Amino acid sequence: MNVPFIGEVPSDIVVSWIFVSLIGVLLLWWLTKKEQWPTIWEYARTTDNRKIGTMYILFAFLFFIRGGMDAMFIRSQLAVPESEFWVFQSQKYNEVFTTHGTVMIFFVAMPLLIGLMNIAVPLQLGANDLAFPYLNAISFWLFVSGAVIFNMAFFFNAAPNAGWTAYAPLSSDTFTTGPNNNYYIFGLQISGMGTILTAINMIVTIIRLRAPGMKLTRMPLFPWATLVTSFLIIIAFPVLTVALLLLTFDRLYGTSFFLGELGSPIYYQHLFWIFGHPEVYILILPAFGIFSDIISTFSRKRIYGYRSMVIAIALIGLLGFMVWAHHMFTVGLGALANSVFAITTMLIAVPTGIKVFNWLFTMRKGVVRIKTPMLFSLGFIPTFVLGGVTGVMLAVAAADYQYHDSYFVVAHFHYTMIGGTILGAFAGIYYYYPKMTGKVLDETLGRWHFWLFIIGFHLTFMPQHFAGLNGMPRRVYTYSWDDGLFLLNFVSTIGAFVMGASMLFVVWNLYKTHRYGEKVGKDPWDGRTLEWSVDSPAPEHPFDPVPQVNSRDAFWYAKISEESLPAAENPRPSPIPVQTIQPVVLAGILGVMSIGFIYQWVWMQVIGGVGVLSFFILRSLTDERKKAYRKEEES
Amino acid sequence: MKQTSEILFQDKRLGFFLYLVVEALMFATLFATYILFTPASVGADPSEVYELRTVVLTSVFLLSSSGTLMIAEKGLKTWDRKKIWIGLGTTFLLGSIFMGLEIHEFYKYVHEGYTITMNNFLSSFYVLVGLHASHVAFGLGWMILLMGQFKQKLPRSLFIEKHKIFNYYWHFVDVIWVLIILIVYVPYLF
């Protein structure tokens, strides 16, 4: 499409600009009309864990729409053989599957889970906030900054196009010129920094801020999963940071770490998967934690085999670091390496199996109430088991030569990522919605959402197993009539649109609940853990007085004996909250600096760099602890 | 009962140690990169690039700065303002000399034609040692800020907190330098 003054621009980008501008104007008008600007200003300056968690989920939902639309384009292009849907062929198709994968993993799955952690984990521990409220706001705005940088790329006709793994040498400037993959690098670096800081915050909170009597062994399973996940993050993400740093040098400064005669493309693959495989456990473990708590609540029973659940989480986390080369079976690492990694991969099925049986045993003889969060948990178990079974199939190194880079792999990881992470996030959102907003989401619409989503999901991805086994490679934008893949792909496309439709029920549900929903009390689900002992929505500084915890599920047993939780005698001081716009400013400066690097405008890099360094000084001089410490000194 | 500032400091210390773990893993990955690509099959060999004199000089200045910082640490314990000034001041001075020598070293290498694009040995050398040097530079800026805050008379417990966190950082940067000597320089100097 020819745009005046700009030149040739693909029509999807033109449509997106128009669409987004319209939405933007409408949004501004609506915010002004409803006088919502003070609320926005309040949220931009907050360091409260509930508000930050809610914003994480809100932004993740926005990016979910973007990633979902990418998926619709992919499925539309693949619906029939030899099709030419809109512009999504060859390079455009590369862009659309790259952004789909990257957005869904880094800007949807991660923030959904981190958002839920923010909301639930401090409350479940009896803590009044995360250990470092200010740092938490920084983490959140770094995520937003990274996500905005990444999503900007598309609007400037420079969407990354080397797959979500950005394998070198394809991702080096020799083979993908232009700023495209620079956007990928800087988007991930900035948001990755935010993730690392969140992990640190979570670990310190869990280790040091638990209510008196809340021993580690009395914690609910979601904080346990969060703890292990956070350790995985602080070990895995630095490796990604360095891999991307080296890639940056290859792209911008002429080195050849990963390409040419001197470089080693395999080294990039190692680095990427040393990060990338733990990353998938980073995505699944919190979901496991959420399911454990939900299944226990809605079965009115203690979780079955608590200790084995904790050990299983830890084992999965540990084994998660010993399996990365199973992504590289066909690279030619040799029979010994392949065998070792095949065995460690299969071993992961053992702790995962333990967890599945424990969930089933938790429900056994329980008083099971099937509300929406429980429905998602029930949908998760068989779906995830299917994903696990195909995982073990893929772990057979010899057989993997057949499966590798085929739709069988695509089907496998969607069964684990959607069947595990996304169902877990949905379950968590329905479950914790009262703690975020004070209202329970509508049950009927929730059920519509669940059934359409799960049916659509299996329709989409079940056929992809067979398409893969019949030889359909992933990341290819077309196939011929002779391939015999038409029916499988067509069903898959129908399923994708059913899934897309189910999300409309979420939007409807949000609207309906917001408009007509009634406020609920502290404990709408008859819960077992401390978060249900505070108001809905959770106030800032929720635990006053801080409760004394004397057993696992202490709140539940207090309810049974019709007592309230005893107040702790000497609780530790709470972290110091603050209202500040600084995190937004930092996110902005880092955004400017990244654009400088993406387009290699040195003056902009310098401005951004000076800005970041000045920010450190500003931050140190405006430390919110100053007031609190001075007061202590005077007393 | 413990004071608020003490407990919040312990939170911060744990958080900062975890952050140093993150940093350590980044350096570990870069060390691995260096080991993997050194020596390179073409271009300069490390033994012709490195000079014993520079390595010894830089090391003397940086490693002794960890010692002088301990004077300040002692001063913090007894709140001896003079010791803190002396400790911070000499550490800053030694760190700056190290920084100067480091810049000179890079400048000289580049002048001799050993640029970052020559081969992967030099690429990984510059990225690894450069990242360390930028940590030292950041630490120097941090010290200036700290001295400013010392003058400004923060609440004592807050200044001690900030100073201690900086000490962890500086010692960490020194430990990384020891590893650089052992892994980057020594195998090719002797």
UniProtKB/TrEMBL annotation, chain A:
Signal peptide: none annotated. GO terms for molecular function: cytochrome-c oxidase activity; heme binding; metal ion binding. The keyword Cytoplasm does not apply. Residues 35-550 form the Cytochrome oxidase subunit I profile domain. GO terms for biological process: electron transport coupled proton transport; oxidative phosphorylation; respiratory electron transport chain. The keyword ATP-binding does not apply. Pathway: Energy metabolism; oxidative phosphorylation. One of its GO terms (cellular component) is plasma membrane. The chain crosses the membrane at residues 13-32, 53-74, 103-123, 135-156, 183-209, 221-247, 267-291, 303-325, 331-354, 375-399, 411-433, 445-466, 486-511, 580-599, 605-622. Keywords: Cell membrane, Copper, Electron transport, Heme, Iron, Membrane, Metal-binding, Respiratory chain, Translocase, Transmembrane, Transmembrane helix, Transport. InterPro entries: Cyt_c_oxase-like_su1_dom, Cyt_c_oxase-like_su1_sf, Cyt_C_Oxase_1, Cyt_c_Oxase_su1_BS, Cyt_c_oxidase_su1_bac. It is found in: Cell membrane. It holds the Pfam family COX1. Its EC number is 7.1.1.9. It is a multi-pass membrane protein. It catalyses: 4 Fe(II)-[cytochrome c] + O2 + 8 H(+)(in) = 4 Fe(III)-[cytochrome c] + 2 H2O + 4 H(+)(out). PANTHER family: CYTOCHROME C OXIDASE SUBUNIT 1. Cytochrome c oxidase is the component of the respiratory chain that catalyzes the reduction of oxygen to water. Subunits 1-3 form the functional core of the enzyme complex. CO I is the catalytic subunit of the enzyme. Electrons originating in cytochrome c are transferred via the copper A center of subunit 2 and heme A of subunit 1 to the bimetallic center formed by heme A3 and copper B. Belongs to the heme-copper respiratory oxidase family. This is Cytochrome c oxidase subunit 1. It comes from Halobacillus locisalis. The gene is ctaD.
UniProtKB/TrEMBL annotation, chain B:
One of its GO terms (molecular function) is cytochrome-c oxidase activity. Keywords: Membrane, Transmembrane, Transmembrane helix. Signal peptide: none annotated. One of its GO terms (biological process) is aerobic electron transport chain. Residues 1-189 form the Heme-copper oxidase subunit III family profile domain. The keyword S-adenosyl-L-methionine does not apply. The chain crosses the membrane at residues 16-37, 52-72, 84-104, 124-147, 168-188. It is a multi-pass membrane protein. PROSITE patterns: COX3. One of its GO terms (cellular component) is plasma membrane. The keyword Cell division does not apply. It is found in: Cell membrane; Membrane. Belongs to the cytochrome c oxidase subunit 3 family. This is Cytochrome c oxidase subunit 3.
